[in-house]
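During the no-cost extension, the postdoctoral fellow (Dr. R.K.) reprocessed legacy sequence entries with the updated structure-token encoder. One reprocessed record is reproduced below for audit purposes.
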Amino acid sequence: MLNAADLVASLLIPGLTALAAVDPLAERERRTRMVADVGDFLRGSLALHGAWLAAHPLPDAPWVWSVGDAHVGNFATLATGPLRRDGRSAVTYGVADIDDEHPTPWHWDLVRLMASMAVTFGGDHRRRGGDELDACVLADYLRIMQAATEHDDDSVRLDYHGLPEALKAALEHDADEQVLERHRRTFIAGKRLRPGRSCSKDAVACAFLRPAVEAALDGQPPAKEWEVLDVARRTTSGGLASLGRRRWWVLARERDRAGDWVPRLLELKEHRPSALAVFLPAQPFAATSATRWTLPMGGDPWQRFVPLNTGEALLRTRCQARTVLAPASLDAGDRVRLARLWGQLLARAHLASSQALGQPASRTAQVLAGQVQAHGAALREMASQLGAWSGKAHLAFRRQCS
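Re-encoded structure tokens follow.
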């Protein structure tokens, strides 16, 4: 058994110390949030889970391009896809952050997700149907893989009527035209970004970054007609994964089918190697394909890497949606439906990456379906152990930060 306190001391504390040296406010916020809430601790301790998973391998596990940071808080409503006939993007639900995407053995995403479910519910997890929820995640992951094996496209589509009632309400709310307009008014005035508490004008960054963004978009245009209008430095702190990273707002626009210009708010965020890379220095995918591909969030046509002279940044749409459901607040039926949906979304992500990396999706699906059937019980036990171990790690973190 890995010693949680030792790994906290060697993997988490040095990172906080390094962050404090360059951004003391970001370090203070990260440390405070992780100490106060076990869910935030889990979100900020992917490195710990990477070490634990690397020490508990599954025999002969095939690899996928993983979400990387699969946990209950990393699924949200999104309105990032291409424009519809009404000039708006459809509101969907899916993986909302891929900062730590990375090739991994296929089960890492599933085990981390199920462990995060156990952490979210705490000691109440099993009493509130934790075993059933884990089984639901794996059952729908398996169902999607079996459908892909049989080339059954209808079976892999999201069933709106089968979604959690709370998610239906969130999708309806985030699709409201007034919600979209409030979002645009917050950041956009006179077809330019509005300097304020959330962003500041930065002429130097704009002069350098705008051509870099345009060059990255030119290779594969996001729309028939598009234009980048403005860039401004983002000053709000954002999520745990964003603390300490340089970020900018980018305002663009695109023509809809009626010929009208529609604004598109984007975020450009400094991209760093996945926290999982240190545990998985070698991977089976060709470097030429794997390093430049990124898992698209909500079918975002604007999402891509932008090369910078100091590294690279990830460009993506920032929309009016991004509602995250709190599983502990849902009734039993919605928790089951949400667990099934998470299993479906991870399966779709793994299949999408398989196709993008040049592997036949049906063959990948057949192999992964067999893996679920052979190791499902073992994965549920691994997730239970990792969830309990994460609680010990959080206690150790609190002691070391006191």
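The CA atoms of residues 253 and 262 lie 5 Å apart. The two ends are 25 Å apart (CA to CA). The remaining legacy entries will be reprocessed before the final report is submitted.
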